[in-house]
Amino acid sequence: MSQMFPPALLALADGTVFRGKGIGAAGSSVGEVVFNTALTGYQEILTDPSYTRQIVTLTYPHIGNVGVNREDCEAPKVYAAGLVIRDLPLVASNFRSEQTLDAYLKAENIVAIADIDTRKLTRILREKGAQAGCLMTGENLDAAAAISQARAFPGLAGMDLAKVVSVDTPYEWTEGEWRLGKGYVPQANPKFHVVAYDFGVKRNILRMLAERGCKLTVVPAQTPAKDVLALKPDGVFLSNGPGDPEPCDYAIAAIRELLDTKLPTFGICLGHQLMGLAAGGRTLKMKFGHHGANHPVKDLESGQVMITSQNHGFAVDPATLPANVKVTHVSLFDGSLQGMAWTDRPALCFQGHPEASPGPHDVSYLFDRFIGMMEHAKKN
């Protein structure tokens, strides 16, 4: 591998330096270093807008063995600031593969490193918390300069990235879920009109809503509530996204106004956090966040334990929620809040990713609950 790939290093803000091989674009990149424990789905992870300004470490050792294909992207481009892996297989083999991972990273101009001890890196992040890092590839690497760049990174707390990754103009979405041999099936006979706020939305969320009969109008993050209400939707969806929810005052104000109309509302990830803030709650930065596809979450109503996909570095503080908001789901890893529902209006949200991609589909029933809320509202 050393003859094929240039030298590379990852420097953390605490002064730790890892040396390996560059498998992506030449250059450098700075961001918050996080670890993801998913065994599969590296392409979906890289293209998830929620990873903006984050360097993703994948704990599973062999990454790239099934290559890359256009169908599995969650957004039009890679949003992660960099990729850190243990081992890049030299052969990619899958009937849907169109490109090798290293060729894809180069084409997307993403800096990445392989051949480092990802177990040691993960232990550091677990013990000390997520911290800033700098990736460098190429000849004549300067470790001291990389450490300085890592220490200069301001961190994600206070960073509003939703409006950065959001679309500029509204658009319609009609693509349903993937079928073997058919690809993504076009939507037929929609029953509901849903306006989806794009704070960094993943395509599979839109596909799962379309599959359930939703005609979707996707709108920019800073769209005022009055513009959404003018579209006369049956429901509103609030998407996932990157960064700190607290600076997104434009979204919090719009969501508060929409909740007051008692329009069926469903939020995922950042959308969940923004709904908590709109209700009067507070959010907090987690030590190292939840990133993976094997996180156990308990549904407090049914007592059922589900394995879920997660990707977030902030959480809603349940102690700050008003009386009309009840906790519906909790993480069995650390007890943090995972789901909420309003007792006096049709609104619910979930911190994890019920759309998976990658990950298990245990929590996909929340999409059906949202559909049920719209059905009930139409009847009444």
Automatic annotation (TrEMBL):
Any one GO molecular function term: glutaminase activity
Top EC class of this enzyme: ligase
Keyword Nucleotide-binding: yes
Gene3D superfamilies noted in UniProt: 3.40.50.880, Carbamoyl-phosphate synthase small subunit, N-terminal domain (3.50.30.20)
Pathway annotation from the record: Amino-acid biosynthesis; L-arginine biosynthesis; carbamoyl phosphate from bicarbonate: step 1/1; Pyrimidine metabolism; UMP biosynthesis via de novo pathway; (S)-dihydroorotate from bicarbonate: step 1/3
Residues covered by region (CPSase): 1-192
Binding site for L-glutamine: S50, G241, G243, L270, Q273, N311, G313, F314
Entry-linked HAMAP family: CPSase_S_chain
NCBIfam families registered for this protein in UniProt: CPSaseIIsmall, PRK12838.1
Name of the protein in question: Carbamoyl phosphate synthase small chain
Gene name tied to this protein: carA
